[in-house]
Amino acid sequence: MIPRNCGKSAAATSQLWMLDRRGFLRGSLAVGILSAGCSSLELFKPTEMTDHFRIYAGPDGYGIEAERSLEDLTGLLGHPFHGVIEIWTGGGGGPYATRGMSPTINMPWAYIQSRTDPLVHELVRVVPVSFFTLLNRGLAVVSQRILRPEKRTFPSFGEDIHLAASRVGSPLDAVTTDAHQYIIDGSFVGFLVERYGVERLMDYTAMGLPGGWTIVSTPLRHSDMIVYGKSFDELIREWRDNVQTNPKKRPLKIEFMPQKERRDDDVLRRHKGKVVVSDNRNMSRSGLKAIENDAVEAYEFLSGFFKREPFRDTQIAIHIAGNEPSHIETTGNRLTLKLRADRALRGSYELVGLMSPLFLSESGTGLPLLIVTEYLQSLQTTVGGFKLRAAPNYGADWDRMAKAYIRYFEPLSRLSPGRAHQEAPTLRLLQTGSFGRWVAKRYTNGNPQSAVGMLSRVVNGSSWESVFDASLDTMERGWRQYVNEISL
């Protein structure tokens, strides 16, 4: 498909130009387009636009199909996506996707026309919070097979993935991009989904991969134990024993019911105009509304929790802030919540943690404030109807994750938290949040209001001894003992 005002000679060259869209128009190609009486700027315009997609030179209705695929995928994974994805169609080559602030999918015409386009497969490359090669490859294969089983797509082209894997001898963790490796990874991830469910796999994917760098920037092999309670090698053995040895007895069969994003418009009506999200070309219209709604829900949660609204007459402006860390800026009578772009795209923002200092302390500094902030953040387990996968635990169990990383925690008395939540590294957020959760269990029998009330007295200047009848060092020893006794 080409712009309507272009002539025949432009039709002959436009598809070739699409293949070179990231570079410059060169030589006779540029001359051919301009001589046809077609403005070269029109070739930059999408031929179809939907809420989440800009389609360039695609067939009529492909945007609707893409929206349906994205809705099914986010329902399957239990994970929102608020951004806009560009889909470019071209001549040769194979499908591929690039991730970032402007996610892009290249889907050649030949695949679309033959109904073998692996659109769901490529969407997996841009939708999840985080990904690591083996799990991402496998998740892409499995998602395509579950959601679009009628399409005979790469890598097994309609054949049962476990049966195909039984004939392939590639090692599971080899770093390669050939079809055999995708089959092996798809079979392994398919087994994990069959045995343990999609939610655990998403926890695993967000946190890290054994032997690689985890989300807390420490080279550990703990993410498998935190999520599955088993080592990576044990999971491989289970997969080989239950799938590869009897492939015909265990075809890939996973039942699911897509869960649509739940939004409560009454919340927005109750706080009309409270939060304003600045427009951003990388955000979908529904995504901007979702972020606005999520911010209002966080504000309403904190207002109800503390039974007060310190900023009742103040508007909160949300700005998508590139790659800088998410934070709040206070200027006069204006609050600006700056969200890191990749977190905003995928709904992985810590809104309660970011806003809670506004309800606790004007200064926004100190270890006690960071403990309260992260404890409050730990109470927010969902956002917009989806499981929240934000720092520092990314959806995984707080206490089990603290157990896995406890040897890397510094003594609490030596921490320098800086401004609450905004400047603290992920490992420090995990430590202080886990400590706050233990304080609530130990001193208030798990009552959040009582726990925050006691910790707030320390935030406001009282000593640990006067509030808890114990020094910080003594309390930390009790917390470390509790964490060490947790079973992975």
**Largest beta-sheet details:** 5 strands, mixed
What structural class is derived from the secondary structure elements?
Answer: alpha/beta
* DSSP helix fraction: 40-55%
Any guess at the CATH architecture of the largest domain? Orthogonal Bundle
Total number of helical segments? 21
Query: How many strand elements?
Result: 11
CATH class annotation of the largest domain: Mainly Alpha
- Spatial sequence of strands, sheet with the most strands: 1-2-3-5-4
How many domains? The number is: 3
**Which segments are poorly predicted (pLDDT under 50) over 5 or more consecutive residues?**
1-41, 209-220, 257-263, 419-423
Any idea what the shape is?
flat
What distance lies between the first and last C-alpha atoms, to the nearest angstrom? 55 Å
What is the fold named in CATH at topology level of the largest domain?
Neutral Protease, domain 2
Q: What does the radius of gyration come to?
A: 25 Å
Mean pLDDT: 77
Percentage beta strand: 5-15%
Any overview of this molecule?
The chain has 488 residues and is an alpha/beta fold. It folds into 3 domains: 38 residues, no CATH class; 132 residues, no CATH class; 220 residues, Neutral Protease, domain 2, CATH 1.10.390. It is 47% helix and 8% strand. The chain has 21 helices and 11 strands. The strands form 3 sheets. It has a 5-stranded mixed beta sheet, covered by helices on one side. It has a 4-stranded mixed beta sheet with strand order 6-7-9-8. Helix 13 links the parallel strand 6 and strand 7. Helix 1 runs antiparallel to helix 2, helix 6 packs across helix 8 and helix 16 packs antiparallel against helix 19. The N terminus is likely disordered.
